[in-house]
Amino acid sequence: MNTLAQIAASLPGYQPQNLSVSAASAFLAALATPVDGVERVGIWDALGRVLAQDIVSPISVPPHDNSAMDGYAYASASSTLPSSAPVLLQVVGSVLAGQAWQGALQAGQCLKIMTGAALPAGLDTVVPFEAVTLQGEHISFAPLRPGANRRRAGEDLLQGQAALRQGDRLTPAALGLLASLGLATVPVLRRLRVAYFSTGDEILSLGEAPRAGAVFDSNRYTVTGLLRQLGVEVLDLGVVRDDPALLQAALHSAAQQADAILTSGGMSAGDADHTRSMLGTLGEVVFWQLAIKPGRPMAVGRMAANLQTKTGSSADSTSARSYTNHSKPPAVLFGLPGNPVAVMVVFLALVRPALLQMMGCNAASSAAAPLQQVRSAQAIRKRPGRTEYLRGIVETAADGSLWVRLTGHQGSGMLSSMVQANGLLVLAEAQGDVAEGDTVSVMPLNA
Ligand SMILES: Nc1nc2c(c(=O)[nH]1)N[C@H]1C(S)=C(S)[C@@H](COP(=O)(O)OP(=O)(O)OC[C@H]3O[C@@H](n4cnc5c(N)ncnc54)[C@H](O)[C@@H]3O)O[C@H]1N2
Ligand code: MOO
């Protein structure tokens, strides 16, 4: 396992001050190790889980040639006629989905057939009901291309073909595909365990009596909500006071149980920001000032399960530490800023991709939804040198073009504007002011 110092050294131009989003992402990608541990779960419980191995199809899907239409099935070879002349066939039986028709047809004969019914041997073409004229026990219709309205055995998946890949995150479509293969259980990686706590003496838990200077904890709900959307197991450690002993106990408990620890608050250098100094003495931690708005201060590191306080250490330590507890790898720590919008932005921009990697997702299933390219409905002041995430509402104009306007005040404590937003404008580090009508990138929210 590389130390933080080794990771830092492998990234050209890395410095913890004014760190670009791309350099921070690269650092986190080097830190995030996929979980090991495989379990077999029933398909009902598999939504959002990550496949532990490739799934090879045990059967062909569909298992037999079948009809794509309700109509009449016939052998195109036995009905070759001058191509423009109508085809005239005698209907001698019918076959429903789920039935196997055993008889034999003569030239000039056909069978009534329903969508999904297996095509009896030798029949290769289906004419839909609405294309025929009934004449007693005969039908006539304009000639069709041989093979029309036939679904071939194995056209979805051939037996022995890879149906799904290791690291795929199981979507509703993937669950359907597994079921179509007859698989009732599936091997998945164990769930990533993520511990979370809010910090700050001014933070009230719900149900506590309001007091002067205090605010209710919102980060606990935004962050654990984002975690639940990822499908990880959340260990909620509540609110921890700015008290070194309590912070140490919370970190200790989190490091023993979790693969990753998320905290909010105490990342800047305020008088009561004990979280920052406590993290620095307990683990291998780096403190960043990100070139980002909002969400500048962030801590990243590792916490061993057998936390021991370092003595005489500096807070910004990247020194190698030894981990004596070999039964559990250290937890990856993400210390997030306290401001309610900042914590969500840093989660979406940096923590989420790292957690997906830790969950064992492959590149395809951890890729973020592509940024939308839309036009700005307003001019926006933007200083080059940092990536800015602005809350916006994307709307479709009468001509079908997409436009985005800001939700109003962009203060990093204002959750109401986060609720209104359906996307985050992502203004790249080098970008300057945006003029009305310029194309900007938007990260869709709640997608
Ligand atoms: N002198 C400086 N001051 C600040 C700097 C700086 O660089 N120099 N950075 C600012 C930025 S940017 C941010 S972001 C904040 C981050 O500070 P902390 O991580 O220490 O966060 P706190 O001070 O604990 O809280 C900030 C703000 O958010 C409220 N908060 C915190 N936790 C919660 C919660 N769980 N639920 C609801 N609201 C929460 C807290 O009450 C504060 O209002 O620092 C700036 N200052
Ligand atoms: O960047 Mo801080 O996150 O302003 O709120």
From TrEMBL:
CDD domains: MoeA
SMART domains: MoCF_biosynth (SM00852)
PROSITE patterns given in the database record: MOCF_BIOSYNTHESIS_2
Catalytic activity: adenylyl-molybdopterin + molybdate = Mo-molybdopterin + AMP + H(+)
Pathway where this protein functions: Cofactor biosynthesis; molybdopterin biosynthesis
Molecular functions per Gene Ontology: molybdopterin molybdotransferase activity
Keywords: Magnesium, Metal-binding, Molybdenum, Molybdenum cofactor biosynthesis, Transferase
InterPro entries referenced in this protein's UniProt entry, alphabetically: MoaB/Mog-like_dom_sf, MoaB/Mog_dom, MoCF_biosynth_CS, MoeA-like, MoeA_C_domain_IV, MoeA_C_domain_IV_sf, MoeA_linker/N, MoeA_linker/N_sf
Keyword Transferase: yes
Membrane-crossing residue ranges in chain numbering: none
Cofactor: Mg(2+)
MoaB/Mog domain segment(s): 195-357
Entry EC number(s): 2.10.1.1
Domain of life of the native organism: Bacteria
Family: Belongs to the MoeA family.
Function of the protein: Catalyzes the insertion of molybdate into adenylated molybdopterin with the concomitant release of AMP.
Name of the featured protein: Molybdopterin molybdenumtransferase
Lineage, broadest ranks: Bacteria, Pseudomonadati, Pseudomonadota, Betaproteobacteria, Burkholderiales
